[in-house]
Design goal:
- By secondary structure, the protein is an alpha/beta fold.
- The protein has two domains: about 5-210, Spore Coat Polysaccharide Biosynthesis Protein SpsA, Chain A (Alpha-Beta Complex); about 215-305, no CATH class.
- About 45% of the residues lie in helices and about 15% in strands.
- The protein has 13 helices and nine strands.
- Strands 1, 2, 3, 4, 5, 6, 7, 8 and 9 form a nine-stranded mixed sheet that branches.
- The model has no long low-confidence stretch (mean pLDDT about 95).
Length: about 300
């Protein structure tokens, strides 16, 4: 039986004036209407804040130097009066008007569910490599994961993305919210906390958004450098190194690339994978790197500024 619960939508922003109206328009068209919409803005230099206010959102200002993937999202978590907090980003577009309904339904119908993450569909102008990667990462079949899956298959059991995720507010607060400071993967870290706390993670592919990126090699290296830093931290202590999961994913990725794009994608795949692997390795050994160089190698500059 479905229990009526209220929903908040939380969107971190930075200079989102060109993108924010699209997602806020889509939120207004959803069959499930949110009690609150929060725009967590990091000192935008355009009309982001004015747009959020015009749509009736609660606009909260975050100093850009203080932005943190975990801490900033905790601002929305701590402020909301809703039962479910839905997190997304400024450049995501819900695929239909049932996005919120589908994303929140598992929490509304099952008291064991602490977090739901949805599907990401690549944009029509995404590269072939990016399209194949998204289709592998976000399959059309749904699944449920709990703490026994963490023990069985490791960190990939906790795959979750705050580009498209809903959290049971009481449960997330109970386990301490998002870790902060957190360079990246605050979503997976929160999922691990919830699963260790006895809650279930659900992947719901019917809750889909259109979202993808086309990163160059430098950006890809920087993204995975930050992931390496995260994996080297204490948040996932006791779960072992992610090497086995990385090898599992790399094999699946290669097969998907060949099946969907053929041999012509092998070169781009190899170069992209090499940039990722080197980034993770260097990030995992960041303590051996001078502090100034760490900031240069990272996409998350504000993270290092707060630590200095």
């Amino acid at each position: 039986m479905q229990e009526t619960k209220t929903v908040a939508v939380v969107i971190p922003t930075l200079n989102a004036g060109q993108q924010l109206p699209t997602i806020l328009d889509s939120v207004k068209r959803q069959g499930l209407q949110p009690l609150e919409v929060f725009v967590l803005d990091s000192e935008s230099e355009d009309d982001t804040r004015a747009i959020g206010q015009r749509y009736g959102a609660s606009v909260m200002s975050i100093a850009r130097r203080d932005f943190d993937h975990g801490g900033t999202r905790n601002v929305g978590l701590n402020a909301t009066r809703a039962d479910i907090a839905v997190y997304t980003v400024q450049d995501a577009v819900p695929s239909d008007d049932n996005w919120l309904t589908n994303l929140c339904r598992p929490i509304m119908t099952d008291a064991k569910v602490g977090v739901v993450t949805g599907r990401q569909i690549p944009r029509v102008d995404a590269t072939e490599l990016e399209k194949a990667t998204r289709l592998l990462t976000y399959p059309v079949e749904g699944y449920r994961r709990d703490v026994t899956d963490l023990e069985r298959i490791g960190l990939r059991a906790a795959f979750c993305t705050d580009t498209n995720a809903a959290y049971r507010v009481s449960a997330l607060r109970q386990v301490g919210g998002f870790p902060a400071p957190c360079i990246v993967h605050e979503d997976m870290a929160a999922a691990v906390r919830l699963m260790r706390g006895g809650y279930v993670l659900v992947y719901e592919p019917r809750a889909a958004i259109v979202h993808s990126h086309s990163y160059g090699l430098r950006e890809q290296f920087q993204r995975y450098f930050d992931m390496g830093v995260f994996f080297a931290g204490d948040e996932l202590r006791g779960m072992g190194r992610p090497t086995r999961n990385a090898i599992w994913y790399m094999r699946r990725h290669l097969i998907a690339i060949v099946n969907q794009g053929g041999p012509r994608l092998l070169g781009p795949w190899f170069i992209d994978t090499l940039a990722r692997a080197i980034g993770v390795f260097v990030g995992g050994n960041y303590k051996m790197i001078p502090a100034r160089l760490r900031r240069y190698l990272s996409r998350q500059k504000s993270y290092w500024s707060r630590l200095s």
